[in-house]
Amino acid sequence: MSTTANDPVITSYAKAPTRTITAGGDTFAYRELGPRGGIPVVFFVHLAATLDNWDPRIVDAIAATRHVVAFDQLGVGASSGKVRDTLEEAADDAYRFVAALGHDTIDVFGFSMGAMIAQDLVVKHPDLVRRLVLTGTGPRGGTDIDKVVGTTYGDVLRATLTRSDPKEFLFFNRDAAGKKAAKAFVARLKERTVDRDKDVTLPAFRTQLKAIQRYGRSAPSDLSVITGPTLIANGDNDRMVPSVLSEDLHRRIVGSELIIYPSSGHGGIFQYWEEFAPVAATFLSE
């Protein structure tokens, strides 16, 4: 299913239909919304996530003025194939997806693993990306990124024992403010009630975790090739991708902007969405 000129403009991510496009024999599932034309903002999602894991408050704020595209990586949700063993391969898939849509210039919004894939994409295709938003993430070879495996499995177990969503533990501090923000975030993700994506399978989840581990143990990329405007954001207590790595990215990407939200974790941008969404929207609309 593809967009036609007569389709109505979708303004709510919760109501954006799921479309598919084929590239090199693979089928990518995606959703798009916002005004058509110009350079799109392509969203790169996190570990174990599908199209249904984007915070609609952030997507909708950006889609108010920009054409937004979110997609499932191969082997995830409604996309075909298997999850790749490395994030570089996932970046190659993303490039094929963008090319199949007919875009030669994009802006990128990446969160966590998605922002790692986005970095690999820009390093390989520096002329493709104009503006870059990197949240809850770190550079290839970043210190302690490879420890995400233990942290993730530990919090998944805690969530199972308390019948909670793992993201409540992985993304948010376990203080009163964090717990409240976590519940609100999970509730927002449920606002879409039809045409929801399939959950990530356990083998796909494990493959993604191993790919992140490899990324953390790899030689650093040359991020000096990133010369376009870049916005970096995180909470000050990220247990998945240590917050110091956001500062590391800021140092490596000349001219980048850095926002660190207080008393928040990996999902700091979701806890502080009321502050972050307009900042991101303004940055991407400049």
TrEMBL record:
One of its GO terms (molecular function) is hydrolase activity. Keywords: Hydrolase. InterPro entries: AB_hydrolase (IPR050471), AB_hydrolase_1 (IPR000073), AB_hydrolase_fold (IPR029058). Signal peptide: none annotated. Residues 41-270 form the AB hydrolase-1 domain. This is Alpha/beta hydrolase. The lineage of its organism: Bacteria, Bacillati, Actinomycetota, Actinomycetes, Micrococcales.
